[in-house]
Amino acid sequence: VLAEKRSLGSRDGPPHLVVLVPLHSRAAAPDTLHLLQSQDSAVVHVDEGRAGSFALLCPRLKQRWRFVTAQAGDLHAVLDLAKVADSLLFLLDPAEGWDSAGEHCLTCLFAQGLPSYALAVTGGTDLPPKKRIDVKKKLAKAIEKRFPEARLFPLNTEQESSLLLRHLATQKQRHLAFRDRRAHLLAYAAEFVPGQDSDLVGTLKVSGFVRGQTLNVNSLVHIVGHGDFQMSQVDAPPDPLSLNPRVFKGQKKSQDMEVQDDSVNATEEMEEDVKVLMKADPNKQESLQSEVVPDPMEGEQTWPTEEELQEAEASLKANRRVVKVPKGTSKYQAAWIVDDGEEGSERDDDDDEDDDIYDDMMEEAASQEGENSEEEEEPAEEECESMTIPESLRDDQYDEKVEDDEQMLERYKQERMDEMFPDEVDTPRDVPARVRFQKYRGLKSFRTSPWDPKENLPRDYARIFQFQDFSRTRKHLFRRIEKEETEGASVGWYVTLHICNVPVSVMESFKEGKPLILFLLLPHEQKMSVLNFLVRRHPSNSEPVRAKEELIFHCGFRRFRASPLFSQHTSADKHKLERFLRPDAALVVTVYAPITFPPASVLLFKQRSNGMHDLIATGSLLSVDPDRIVIKRLVLSGHPFKIFTKMAVVRYMFFNREDVMWFKPVELRTKWGRRGHIKEPLGTHGHMKCHFDGQLKSQDTVLLHLYKRVFPKWTYDPHVPEPVPWVRSESALPVQEVEME
Question: Residue limits of the Bms1-type G domain (predicted)?
Answer without folding.
Answer: 14-174
